[in-house]
Specification:
Chain lengths: 163, 424
């Protein structure tokens, strides 16, 4: 925790390098990007998903893993191309389908959406967040390390004593 | 902590550096990056590939294939192509709007330019050339993956979009997953000894069994025991695997005494957690795979051939149709297959009986992944667990799941006809 008491940093492992920040979106169940999200808008359209009707665009997703078809890689890459993809994705498992979507978009368009893996404890910490979702910044480095920093969105931060 | 990357051989390092051209280098960057994601310590060679990336899902997929082609990449191993978004043999059949049809066609052309064979089928294992036991390949598409691993005893991880073509170009995959002995052993037993031999005479029952297997196994490796080897054929294992890969993440199953890695009992089998599978569970799966609220409503269509119909399935269909009247004019029977199987079935005279009764043939693609059915075809019956699983979401139809005999009787009547004796 920092001196202000409002920031919190979690260690993570980098799966795909990049830097991104956005409002946290906790996904209660694994998501299939193919069939479960709109490739043109980033909206979650799977009627059975708890976050149905929410957009993933610009958000930092926390999900255990993806689900279903490997066509999800193409849909994620297309959303990143169109600017309606997530700002970052945090997983708890090594998910090849999500990683390949991020890697292909990086190869084609230079997007560098960070993909990082949290351990169970860090993921559980994030899942206890209640009320307004904080802004989360994710930095995933080529050396395999990653940092996940949380900031509350609306609570004014304490002004630091200038002395 | 993630390993920064795998250790490469001199040849692999040269490919990554660009010695074989920028297209190979791009493909190798993807393979090496995936190896890092999976924590693989090295790469390994593959001798064949099956590509699913040729189905259109937006501009990014087309950009990727065209970039590889423009950089001069070519596949390094024999490579087949999965079902696409279009039926090139029956122009006008697919109702895709031009803004999707034009790039979908360009995507197919890009994969041909990369050197892949235009097979356009989700059942490459029904071709004469298929992987041998123990052969390491890079196959994509969940039903093809589970068939290759389980029925052929070939070895493939769950490959998908982007990595399938990169593996074909480099001839390499991460040394990980189902390529390794330790990940191919069964993790749970499903005891099927309570299922009657009569019941297991129907492909759709095997699809219902697949639905149960997928739900009980997740992404584990199930061992099915108590099945009479005489009741098994490749079409039934195809139906089982395709549905288990839809309702769960099954990429490898074993059938004791039947599939090549389960011909004799393994040392760990006795200690596996075991769950009995009952006929009541299969009937419950049948009902869950059906979305129709009013079973007396008119039936608009029947969907056969998901995964693509085999020559033997055309033969079984022709036999089932002998001496029967034409299908109801308000009910279209659609049969998906590959251009290769269609040519063989036509040559053998096995397609005529269905076409004379009003059936329509779809090649190169499939009725659940692209708009082919007319807007008024709202209620569709199928013996395919995979079609039943995905079609309501993909093309917005209501589904009735049943056996082939139930589907054909229903197609003649123009309404759903059930025969519960097949489900006991």
């Amino acid at each position: 925790m920092t001196a202000s008491g409002t920031e919190c940093e979690l260690a993570a492992a980098a799966l795909c390098p990049g830097v991104g920040s956005g409002q946290l979106l906790l996904l209660d169940e694994p998501l299939s990007f193919w069939g479960g999200t709109d490739r043109r808008t980033g909206m979650i359209i799977d009627a059975h998903h708890p976050q149905h009707g929410t957009s993933i665009a610009g958000r930092v997703l926390l999900m255990d893993a993806s689900r279903g078809s490997s066509s999800s890689s193409s849909v994620l890459a297309e959303q990143l191309r169109a600017g309606v993809g997530p700002a970052a994705i945090l997983l708890t498992a090594r998910d090849a389908i999500v990683a390949l979507g991020a890697l292909a978009a990086a190869e084609l368009y230079g997007t560098a959406m960070p993909l990082a893996m949290l351990d169970a404890g860090a993921a559980a910490t994030l899942r206890t967040v209640a009320g307004p979702m904080p802004i989360v910044s994710v930095t995933a480095r080529a050396d395999g390390t990653a940092a996940v920093v949380l900031q509350p969105p609306s609570i004014p931060r304490q002004t630091k004593d200038p002395s | 902590m993630t390993t920064p990357g795998p250790v490469l051989t001199a040849e692999e390092a040269a490919m990554l550096r660009g010695d074989s051209g920028p297209g190979v280098a791009m493909a190798m960057r993807m393979v090496v990056a995936l190896a890092g994601v999976l924590g693989a310590e090295r790469l390994m060679p593959v001798t064949g590939a099956h590509i699913d990336s040729c189905l259109y899902h937006g501009q990014a997929g087309l950009d990727f294939a065209e970039k590889l082609a423009s950089l001069g990449a070519r596949v390094a191993v024999p490579t087949t192509l999965n079902s696409s978004s279009l039926d090139l043999m029956h122009p006008g059949l697919v109702r895709l709007p031009p803004e999707d049809a034009v790039p979908a066609r360009a995507l197919m052309d890009a994969y041909r330019a990369l050197g892949a064979r235009p097979t356009w089928t989700c059942a490459p294992y029904q071709s004469a050339e298929r992987p041998a036991f123990g052969e390491n390949v890079a196959w994509a598409e969940s039903n093809a993956i589970v068939f290759a691993n389980s029925v052929l005893g070939a070895r493939t991880e769950r490959y998908g979009d982007f990595i399938d073509i990169c593996a074909a170009i480099t001839g390499r995959v991460p040394h990980a997953g189902l390529h390794l002995d330790e990940h191919r052993l069964p993790t749970l037993e499903l005891d099927c000894s309570a299922l009657s031999t009569a019941m297991l005479g129907e492909e759709a029952v095997w699809a219902a069994l697949g639905d149960v297997v997928g739900r009980l196994s997740g992404s584990g490796v199930p061992l099915l025991t108590g099945i009479d080897p005489a009741s098994v054929d490749e079409d039934r294992l195809k139906a089982l695997g395709a549905t288990a890969a839809s309702s769960g993440g099954v990429a490898l199953f074993h059938v004791a005494g039947v599939t090549p890695e389960a011909l004799t009992p393994g040392p760990g089998w006795a200690a596996l957690p075991s769950t009995p599978v009952t006929s009541a569970m299969l009937r419950a799966a049948r009902d869950e795979l059906s979305t129709v609220a009013d079973p007396s409503a008119p039936l608009d269509a029947v969907a056969l051939g998901t995964p693509h119909f085999s020559v033997r399935e055309f033969e079984k269909l022709a036999a089932a149709l002998a001496g029967t009247r034409p299908f109801h004019p308000g009910c279209t029977v659609w049969i998906n297959t590959s251009r290769e199987v269609l040519a063989q079935a036509r040559e053998a005279g096995l397609v005529q009986a269905a076409e004379e009764r009003g059936a329509r043939i779809v090649a190169d693609t499939c009725t659940y992944i692209t708009p082919i059915l007319a807007p008024e075809e709202r209620t569709v019956m199928t013996p395919s667990g995979k079609w039943a699983w995905y079609a309501p979401m993909n093309i917005g139809v209501d589904v009735v799941f049943g056996t082939l005999a139930e589907c054909l009787a229903s197609a003649r009547a123009g309404r759903v006809v059930r025969d519960d004796s097949q489900w006991n």
